[in-house]
Specification:
Layout (H helix, E strand, L loop, with lengths): L4 H7 L5 E5 L4 H17 L3 E6 L1 H8 L9 E5 H6 L2 E2 L2 E2 L1 H16 L5 E5 L1 H7 L3 H17 L3 E6 L10 H9 L3 E3 L6 H13 L3 H10 L11 H12 L1 H19 L1
Parallel strand pairs: 1-7, 1-8, 2-3, 2-6, 6-7
Antiparallel strand pairs: 4-5
Helix pairs in contact: 2-3, 6-7, 9-12, 11-12
Length: 253
C-alpha cells in the first residue's frame, strides 16, 4: 500500500512545525507521535517529548530501547519554568528549552520534538498564552534546525474547530496532521449530499474553487472541508458533521 502524503510528512518533516487536533482520540495521537519519533531514531536523530504523564506512559511503550536518545519531560513542570504573570517569557523559555535541545543534538544527526504545553494552555482557556508560546517555538525553529510536532485536544468535528477560533493556530504551523479516520472525508461528502440535497454539488464546486488563506499551514482534505462548512454553511454544518461522525465511526468499527 502506498504511503499517504501525511505519512511522508511524519517520515521526513524537514524542520517543519506540525500539529494534530486529536480531540479525545488518544490512539490516533499515539500512532502518529510514535511513528514520528521512531522514524527519527531510524535516521540517527534524537527526540524530546514534553507531555502529560499519561501521554508519556502511552508513547514510551514503543521506545524501551531508545535509552538517552529520547528525553521525556513533564509538560506542566516544564511550562511552569517559563511562565510569568500567566504568559510565556522569552528569556526563561530559552533558558529552559535550549539546553535540553543542545544536549540531545550533540549526540545525534538531528532532533524531533513533540510538545503539548500549548495544548494545556489552550484547554485552560489561555489562548493568547498558547499562541505566544507557538511564536516562541517558531523563533527557535528559525534559529536552530529541528522539527516540532504539537498536540491539541481539540475535536475537529466540534464547534471549537472553527476558522475564527483556530486561525492563529493554523498560521503558526506548516502542516496539520489528519486527526480523523481515513473515511472521514468520504463521510463528510455523503452527509453533505443528504443534508444539502441538490445544492451539495454546487457547494462542493465552491469548495474546490475557493482557496484557503495562504498563511495557513497545509491542511488535509477532511479538515479543510470542515473549516469551509463552518465558515460558509454555519446553519447546516452541525448536522452535516454530526452525520459524518456517525458514518466514519461505523466504518471504523
Amino acid at each position: 500500500m502506498a504511503s499517504s502524503p501525511w505519512t511522508k510528512v511524519l517520515d521526513h518533516p524537514d524542520d517543519d512545525h506540525l500539529v494534530q487536533f486529536y480531540g479525545s482520540d488518544e490512539d490516533a495521537l499515539a500512532a502518529n507521535v510514535t511513528k514520528y519519533l521512531a522514524e527519527g531514531l531510524k535516521r540517527g536523530e534524537s527526540g524530546i517529548v514534553i507531555a502529560t504523564p499519561a501521554h508519556i506512559a502511552l508513547f514510551s511503550r514503543a521506545f524501551h530501547d531508545a535509552g538517552p536518545r529520547i528525553a521525556w519531560l513533564g509538560a506542566e513542570q516544564t511550562l511552569a519554568e517559563f511562565m510569568v504573570d500567566g504568559m510565556p517569557d522569552w528569556a526563561r523559555f530559552q533558558e529552559t528549552i535550549i539546553p535540553a535541545i543542545r544536549s540531545l543534538r550533540a549526540e545525534s544527526t538531528g532532533l524531533r520534538a513533540y510538545g503539548e504545553m500549548v495544548g494545556l494552555l489552550w484547554t485552560a482557556g489561555k489562548y493568547a498564552a498558547a499562541i505566544r508560546l507557538e511564536q516562541f517555538w517558531n523563533r527557535l525553529l528559525g534559529r536552530s534546525s529541528f522539527t516540532l510536532f504539537c498536540g491539541y485536544p481539540i475535536d475537529i468535528l466540534s464547534k471549537d474547530f472553527d476558522p475564527e477560533a483556530v486561525d492563529a493556530l493554523l498560521c503558526s504551523h506548516s502542516h496539520v496532521v489528519p486527526a480523523g479516520p481515513r473515511t472521514l472525508e468520504t463521510s463528510i461528502c455523503r452527509a453533505m449530499e443528504e443534508v444539502l440535497g441538490s445544492k451539495a454539488e454546487a457547494a462542493e464546486a465552491a469548495m474546490k474553487d475557493q482557496r484557503f488563506r495562504a498563511r495557513w499551514g497545509i491542511l488535509p482534505r477532511s479538515e479543510a472541508l470542515i473549516l469551509w462548512l463552518r465558515r460558509n454553511l454555519p446553519a447546516q454544518a452541525d448536522e452535516i458533521l454530526s452525520r459524518a461522525k456517525s458514518y466514519s465511526t461505523a466504518v471504523a468499527v
